[in-house]
């Protein structure tokens, strides 16, 4: 992350377990700068946050849809056929 100058933002889309998963990843990141927003937000606010990203990496379909709708480059992590499609 340091080489790119990007700071990862961990954001819960619609599942309370997203915050737990984010904390597990963060625990492995050492002292890498990052931001954690563990609580789900209203859809409009989530879209607003995602619209300001340089890139979105998400395993949540709605996160990908919201990013695409704002013209933000995205990478989907497939865990379910609906994300793969």
Automatic annotation (TrEMBL):
Signal peptide interval: none
Classification via Pfam families: PS_pyruv_trans
Coiled-coil zones: none
Transmembrane intervals: none
InterPro entries per record: Polysacch_pyruvyl_Trfase (IPR007345)
Domain of life: Bacteria
Domain Polysaccharide pyruvyl transferase positions: 28-81
Name of the protein in its database record: CAZy families GT26 protein
Species annotation: uncultured Caldicellulosiruptor sp
């Amino acid at each position: 992350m340091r080489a790119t100058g990007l700071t990862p933002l961990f954001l819960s889309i619609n599942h309370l377990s997203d915050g737990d998963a984010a904390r597990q990843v963060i625990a492995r990141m050492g002292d890498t700068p990052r931001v954690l927003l563990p609580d789900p937000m209203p859809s409009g606010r989530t879209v607003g946050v995602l619209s300001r990203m340089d890139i979105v990496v998400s395993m949540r379909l709605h996160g990908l849809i919201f990013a695409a709708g704002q013209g933000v480059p995205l990478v989907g992590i497939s865990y379910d056929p609906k994300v793969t499609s």
